[in-house]
Design brief:
21% strand, binds adenosine-5'-diphosphate, 4 domains, Beta-Lactamase, elongated, five-stranded antiparallel β-sheet, 14 helices, alpha+beta
Length: 437
């Protein structure tokens, strides 16, 4: 009985051993044929095992890496990151190690490896990390190329916008100047019809200038070329000043303006040109998209201890929830009954919000179709630390097309009676504006 039991056990053991051998062979072949390199390293990054794949992927013959520190092959700049990941894996055995690093190929070139690892005890009983690494150099290169190409495209596009805008803007100054001179009567008495035609040319020149200024701002924002010039700003004064400049339009549309500026509104540190531009954009929109005789309410108050808010509410055409969603998309103009009369580029709000963001502030809107809209522009009282160090290098005009400087393009006649045009408000002009001969 004993002999037969031994025989049975031996047969069973043989089968088990055979199963084990087959299973080991199976896993070995999986490891050896996998495109991943499998290594086991100890706490010091000493390689206890390396899979033969290393020869195919990294050019090292079997055994060349074993008993060496893995860090000998890792790019010096990536060693701290690699060791930190390794330490973490030993400290938290359940955690999956995940790290990217450069590894020297046997031919000396650097390859980028993406590695995942898990704590395991080595056969010897020594604690180790099984690292599964994959060569992702080509993928990395493709990603970098894509990013570089996208950046180059953006740069080329910004440069194109900027060049075209400059070129379009330059002749506008003398056109506007000549029209002003004619309107002043320098070319002789004008009939009512001539005056009307000239006024139309002038209005359209202003619109074109406004579009070009928007395009220039978009180009600068995209190229990250806008930096803020900080000064102390009294928002109450700024609001009243800008509203005064728009008084003619307010009167024309017989609008009622309600101002509610808290008396102890703190001064803010901000770029006055840009803040004016944001306010004028929001206020002009309220004017444009409200029927004659409507009401615009401007509130300025402290949102919290660090933020001030300017809120502009109108009783205008309003927007549907779908329109509101697309509001800050470049060139988006919602369909509404005042759209054609209002005119515009659909760039104003995109630009305004980018400027608000540059300040660390924001613009948000609520609206109800047929009832009206409220735009709230928040601004930090003190600039965020990132903004404080910015240098003054921006030369753009930044004023709204309706503001004073645009309305006084010509500065008069010279000794020969030739109109002289002041291009001081046109610092982006690539060539000085000259009257047409
Ligand atoms: P623009 O006024 O030049 O078209 P904006 O970027 O300033 O461009 O505004 C984008 C669009 O948002 C406008 O075309 C208009 O449809 C909508 N909008 C902006 N402000 C208001 C407002 N106060 N009331 C209703 N619609 C508005």
């Amino acid at each position: 009985m004993l002999a037969s039991a031994f025989n049975q056990m031996t047969t069973r053991l043989k089968t088990l051993y055979e199963d084990l051998r087959r299973s080991e062979e199976h896993f070995r072949s999986l490891i050896e044929n996998s495109s991943d390199i499998i290594t086991i390293v100890n706490r010091d990054s000493l390689v206890l095992y390396e899979s033969p794949t290393i020869e195919r992927v990294l050019g090292y013959p079997a055994g060349r890496v074993r008993d060496h520190l893995l860090t000998e092959f890792v790019h010096p700049e990536d060693i701290p990151r690699f060791l930190q990941a390794l330490d973490q894996s030993f400290a938290e055995p359940l955690r999956m190690l995940s790290v990217e690093f450069r590894f020297r190929h046997a031919n000396g070139a650097w390859r980028v490896l993406e590695a995942r690892g898990q704590y395991r005890q080595h056969m010897s009983g020594e604690p180790g990390i099984v690292i599964n690494a994959r060569d992702i150099t080509l993928r990395k290169q493709a990603e970098e190329d894509r990013v570089r190409l996208r950046e180059e495209n953006m740069k080329a596009r910004s440069e194109f916008i900027s060049t075209v805008s400059h070129e379009l803007r330059t002749p506008l100054t003398p056109i506007r100047g000549y029209v002003d001179v004619l309107l002043m009567g320098a070319g002789g008495r004008l009939t009512d019809q001539q005056r009307e035609f000239l006024q139309t040319i002038r209005d359209n020149t202003l619109r074109m200038r406004s579009l070009i200024d928007d395009l220039l701002d978009v180009g600068r924002l995209e190229a990250g070329k806008i930096t803020l010039t900080y000064n102390t700003l009294y928002l109450g004064d700024l609001i009243q000043h800008e509203i005064r400049l728009l008084q003619a339009e307010i009167d024309r549309k017989e609008m009622q303006i309600n101002l509610d500026i808290v008396h102890d509104l703190p001064a803010v540190q901000a770029d006055s040109k840009r803040v004016s531009q944001i306010f004028v954009n929001l206020f002009s929109n309220a004017l444009k998209y409200t029927y004659n005789g409507g009401i615009i309410r401007v509130r300025a108050y402290c949102d919290d201890a660090e933020t001030v808010a300017i809120e502009i509410t109108d009783t205008g055409v309003g927007m549907s929830p779908e329109q509101l969603e697309k509001l800050f998309t470049p060139f988006y103009r919602a369909d509404n009954p005042l759209r054609t009369e209002a005119g515009g580029t659909g760039l104003g709000l995109t630009i305004a919000r980018s400027f608000a963001h540059l300040h660390g502030g924001d613009i948000v809107a609520t609206s109800e179709q047929g009832v009206g809209s409220t735009f709230t522009f928040t601004l930090p009282i003190k600039p965020a630390p990132r903004q404080q160090v910015q240098v003054v290098d921006y030369h753009g005009n930044g004023h709204h097309p309706d503001s004073e400087d645009l309305l006084s393009a010509s500065t008069g006649l010279d000794a020969d009676g030739t109109p002289v045009f002041d291009t001081a408000d046109d610092p982006d002009a690539t060539t000085p504006a000259k009257p047409i001969e």
